[in-house]
Design brief:
Length: 170
């Protein structure tokens, strides 16, 4: 199955000059969704994972599925002000501006093995910020896992200290 058949381009979203990779057609097709989930799980191989960290919001779709299959906990990372408990934050730059991410201070425990997941690796700013948060909490990043990697933006260079795996490359 070619998952690229289920990803559509939306030009000039969220701002002029950006070509947004929309995965909602993939999410809406049960066969493609199952195939993608199994393929993302296969990228992890047999590594021990204690927590799967997913980034707001589209990273949540597969991160929670991966956590369930890996018998690991799921930890959401959200934009500033969205989590209800005490948080740690990290500011970062992305391809169309700046933002701040937060994680609950008790989301990761010292020494836990962590899989970081998001839907798209673009410039790498979001994933690098999440990796910093995980490490500040004492977690060990086993892998950064993505549905899509936009190779021309060279986001994996910001993650060069980690194992980075992606299903689809553009």
């Amino acid at each position: 199955m070619d998952l690229k058949d289920y990803v559509r381009d939306i030009k000039d979203f969220p701002s002029d000059g950006i070509v947004f990779k929309d995965v909602t057609p993939l999410l809406g097709n049960p066969i493609a969704l199952k195939f993608a989930a199994e393929a993302l799980l296969a990228l992890v191989e047999n590594q021990k994972i204690d927590k799967v960290v997913g980034m707001e919001s589209r990273g949540f779709f597969f991160a929670s599925m991966l956590a369930s299959e890996l018998k690991a906990g799921f930890v959401p990372v959200r934009k500033s002000g969205k989590l209800p408990y005490k948080t740690m934050s990290e500011a970062f730059s992305l391809e169309y501006g700046t933002d701040t991410l937060e994680i609950h201070i008790d989301g990761i425990k010292e020494g836990e093995k962590v899989l970081v997941h998001d839907d798209v690796l673009a410039t790498g700013g979001t994933a690098a910020a999440v990796c910093k948060l995980v490490e500040r909490l004492g977690g060990e990043i086993v892998q950064c896992n993505f549905l899509i990697e936009l190779d021309f933006l060279k986001g994996s260079e910001k993650l060069k200290n980690y194992s980075v795996k992606s299903l689809l490359h553009y």
